[in-house]
Structures are given as structure tokens and as C-alpha cells.
TrEMBL record:
One of its GO terms (molecular function) is chromatin binding. This is Kelch domain containing 3. Gene3D superfamilies: Kelch-type beta propeller. Pfam families: Kelch_1, Kelch_KLHDC2_KLHL20_DRC7. Signal peptide: none annotated. Keywords: Kelch repeat. It comes from the Eukaryota. GO terms for cellular component: cytoplasm. The gene is klhdc3.
Length: 223
């Protein structure tokens, strides 16, 4: 039976961050903390939790120069996602207090921005991301330019670095943000989040989504 066993202080004080487990370490990227500056462009911070020593460590900022350019390091943000595929972390989306982000970043002890093509999803935060095979799937979130909730599924093929919009069959999950999405086998399960009672646009009639919605790989054309 699962049980809680450790309570530690000393970690970053954050909400809307993204975390990924790599081996025995947990990498936490960015997030929001009241009182911090989210208008000035600055490098995203990375905190690492060692599950063996039970200690936090903050990685030093990237020293820019040579082959590493400022645009290859993500700026500080919140509401983004991060997933692990093989031994590489993929970070996408989120926003600061000024703008939303579209760039895909890869991290494997250093940052890299791969060349992307295809149908790139609009900038958003509060979406979810999960992995099936060699692809990252993005669902929902709040789109910045459209100023509305989303219920789209987008796929990034990490072998070709091509985005595509998935046209899933059946009744789609409600437009939402700040939910969770998890893939088990060939099914993606979406749960929770915030939506609007009357549709994708925010009308101050917020509701929360208590139902689990699943989408199979065949229905969504994942393969």
C-alpha cells in the first residue's frame, strides 16, 4: 500500500511549475511565486531534488556564449509542461506576465531548440502533456491569442520534430485548463481542470470538471 513517508523543507516555493523524473532525480522547471518578476525576460530556473540524499539543489544559470544563444534557453514562465522521452526532457508552452511561449526546448544537461515544422499549436498555458511512443501529446489549456479555453489534441513527433493536429473521433472532452492527462497503454485519460459553463470563451461562469474522459489511440489516430 502506498503511504506518505517524507516531509522536507528547502525546495522552491512554486505553483504552475513542471517537473520530470530522470533516474533518481526530479527536475523542476520554473513556476510562479508571488512577489517575483515575471515581466523581465530572464532564464528559467531549474531545481533538482535527489531522491537518494533527499536534498534540493538549484542549477546555476547557463553562461551564454559560443554555440549557446539566449534564445536556446527558455525564459522564466509558469503554466508550461515538461515530459521525458528516452533521456531527453521536452519543455513547451507556458507564459510570463507579458506573453505566451511557442518554442519547443530540449534539455539533456544543456538546452537546445530544435527546428520545428507542421501545425504548431497556439501559445497557451495550463495545458497538459504526455508521451506515447516517440511522440508528445498536448491537450487543452488557455490559448493566448484566441483568448479562450482549448480542447484540441496536438502531437509532436520527436523523430521528425513535426507538429500535427489530431482529429479524434467521438465526443471531445470539454474545453479546459489546469487539468491532468495521463497515458496508460494506448489510452489518454483527462481529468479535472477549469472550464466555462457556456463554451470555450471565458464569461466568468467557471466550472470545474469532475468527470474522467478517455481517448484511445485508434480513435485519435495516434498511430
Amino acid at each position: 500500500m502506498l503511504r506518505w513517508s517524507v516531509h522536507l523543507e528547502g525546495g522552491p516555493r512554486r505553483v504552475n511549475h513542471a517537473a520530470v523524473a530522470v533516474g533518481h532525480k526530479v527536475y523542476s522547471f520554473g513556476g510562479y511565486c508571488s512577489g517575483e518578476d515575471y515581466e523581465t525576460l530572464r532564464q528559467i530556473d531549474v531545481h533538482v531534488f535527489n531522491t537518494v540524499s533527499l536534498r534540493w539543489m538549484k542549477l546555476p544559470p547557463v553562461r551564454l556564449g559560443g554555440n549557446e544563444r539566449a534564445r536556446e534557453v527558455p525564459y522564466m514562465r509558469y503554466g508550461h509542461t515538461a515530459v521525458l522521452l528516452d533521456d531527453t526532457i521536452y519543455l513547451w508552452g507556458g507564459r510570463n506576465d507579458t506573453e505566451g511561449a511557442l518554442t519547443v526546448f530540449r534539455y539533456n544537461h544543456r538546452w537546445f531548440t530544435p527546428k520545428i515544422s507542421g501545425t504548431v499549436p497556439g501559445a497557451r498555458d495550463g495545458h497538459s502533456a504526455c508521451v506515447l511512443g516517440k511522440a508528445m501529446y498536448i491537450f487543452g489549456g488557455y490559448e493566448q491569442l484566441a483568448d479562450c479555453f482549448s480542447n484540441d489534441i496536438h502531437k509532436l513527433d520527436t523523430t521528425t520534430m513535426v507538429w500535427s493536429l489530431i482529429n479524434a473521433r467521438g465526443t471531445a472532452a470539454r474545453w479546459r485548463d489546469f487539468h491532468s492527462a495521463t497515458i496508460i497503454g494506448t489510452k489518454m485519460f483527462v481529468f479535472g481542470g477549469r472550464a466555462d459553463r457556456f463554451g470555450p470563451f471565458h464569461s466568468n461562469n467557471e466550472i470545474y470538471c469532475p468527470k474522467i474522459k478517455s481517448c484511445t489511440a485508434n480513435d485519435a489516430g495516434f498511430f
